[in-house]
Amino acid sequence: xxxxxxxxxxxxxxxxxxxxxxxxxxxxxxxxxxxxxxxxxxxxxxxxxxxxxxxxxxxxxxxxxxxxxxxxxxxxxxxxxxxxxxxxxxxxxxxxxxxxxxxxxxxxxxxxxxxxxxxxxxxxxxxxxxxxxxxxxxxxxxxxxxxxxxxxxxxxxxxxxxxxxxxxxxxxxxxxxxxxxxxxxxxxxxxxxxxxxxxxxxxx
Length: 204
Description:
Blueprint: E1 2-7, H1 13-24, E2 27-29, H2 39-44, H3 46-71, E3 75-78, H4 81-94, H5 100-114, E4 122-127, H6 130-140, H7 150-165, E5 171-176, H8 186-203
Parallel strand pairs: 1-3, 1-4, 2-3, 4-5
Helix pairs in contact: 3-4, 3-5, 4-5, 4-7
């Protein structure tokens, strides 16, 4: 089974991925932010490095999805291949931070990859307000994220909502995280697990 968690920067994807992996004894596939050679450069000079960064993420996630399907294991994935292509790359293009040529090249590559993989059995979308995202980003204190603007986060949030509204790759569970503390409040984590159980039971 393949479960994936989607959401904006700072929504709590990685934290929830780890907590659910521990609870269900699933294998966690985390986003490659530690070894990503482009992230620092990208946040310092978005226009120069946007295409390189997006292709790196696309390659990394495509590889992940192929491994997930090949492994036959129960896996939970932190962010999906669809978010890069439906949210991050189009947003950079719309902001003038990725050229038409690069965006068309990227989109063509994604379409080819998408034709070879299927969506997760269950997608969990973490919906969050901008103030909550900003608070979480500051709390985790990653240096390269200091330059993320509220305008950038807002644009991403709008694209996330539009994407989720039309999502049709499989089962979808939307979790509003603004008033949840699934790290320090076991009841909040429990309520998410109950919702997941209900969705998973419906899969079989």
